């Protein structure tokens, strides 16, 4: 069988498979809700008075530096502890994905997340609050490992990019919903923050129910020796009876995968370096765009710029809505124009936005005082153009590309490493941003702009286009054809298709 013959297999988008895509994507909504809720809660006076009274006192002092009001390591730990838990749990999630399958791993993700919502909403002391964050993080570690893999493996090749981006779309919807919730609960005293944190149980419960309804992926079933169940699942998700060609390709890939007893060890072989490097460096770049600094702390950031509490929450609702809308652009374009072009275009737009924000704050916002209303509005617009470009590029591609560039024998291990890298650098940004804002002031935006320039060069020179490449033929079709990466295969036998 030639690679060309395996490009497109017969399939129909049935109501059942569409439901599987949507239900699984609620794993992204869980993640997004937590990203959005954290920043809003940390800006609520009732929350600060109960858990971080020193921060609240500092916030009340008008003479305090605009850029240092929220510089508190414990407050940052409230947000960032989740990502340490997600980092550790992603390795357990990788093992669960391999041994138990994608479906049970998604179920476990939802259970941890619901537990986190209950504990967080009931917290009365800091350590219980942090415990809730750890449970949230464990759920996110399991969900961020299993859901993108599930979506990639269940999608027909011609729609793979769009289906995988459903994860990122639901992340953005989660952020937007969280911003709306915070805007409402911020007016409920003194327990509005409890409602915000407790409502995280809703997407967790939907995912829990969804994890019972969805099918297991054919590659996961076949990989675990359940060939007949795998073929039946393939027929079910493709909506056709004639699935022999795709089934045999998956079986062949799984047979090759079974020869690998230590997938994490194989990840560090020379031939794995291109996939390993790209899947992990893209996680670093995704975080060093500065997006999570903006999304975590949008209400705090807008208050720092001189917006009132209500106005700052409303501004973050606006950016959240832009985030959702722009992700639809990615769903429409990713399988038409490809991954690489979206990344390159967005790098330019993000660079211009970051430099402009930094320049405005440098000139017009001092340590005290507020921005002029016109300049404040311009900053909101620039934040929106930045969020917009991220939402159709580095956001979804950070999850899509790593899920489609590994062979099956190292796919769960490689993706787990990518998830853990994402969590490490998300933790770094979450823990350091408010301190960086205090010390670098407006220059923090130039710091992120420098990284965005580097990202654009990476996409231009080192990133191959994965659009339309079967995930079981990535070595032959991507790495061996790329002018830089092909040198890693010079002394290795070419695989048979």
UniProtKB/TrEMBL annotation:
Keywords: Membrane, Sugar transport, Symport, Transmembrane, Transmembrane helix, Transport. It is a multi-pass membrane protein. It is found in: Membrane. Residues 20-467 form the Major facilitator superfamily (MFS) profile domain. SUPFAM superfamilies: MFS general substrate transporter. PROSITE patterns: MFS (PS50850), SUGAR_TRANSPORT_1 (PS00216). The chain crosses the membrane at residues 13-33, 74-93, 105-123, 129-151, 163-181, 193-214, 275-300, 312-335, 342-362, 374-394, 415-437, 443-463. GO terms for cellular component: membrane. Its main location: membrane. InterPro entries: MFS_dom (IPR020846), MFS_STP/MST-like_plant (IPR044778), MFS_sugar_transport-like (IPR005828), MFS_trans_sf (IPR036259), STP/PLT_plant (IPR045262), Sugar/inositol_transpt (IPR003663), Sugar_transporter_CS (IPR005829). GO terms for molecular function: symporter activity. Belongs to the major facilitator superfamily. Sugar transporter (TC 2.A.1.1) family. PANTHER family: OS07G0206600 PROTEIN, SOLUTE CARRIER FAMILY 2, FACILITATED GLUCOSE TRANSPORTER. This is Major facilitator superfamily (MFS) profile domain-containing protein. It comes from Penstemon smallii.
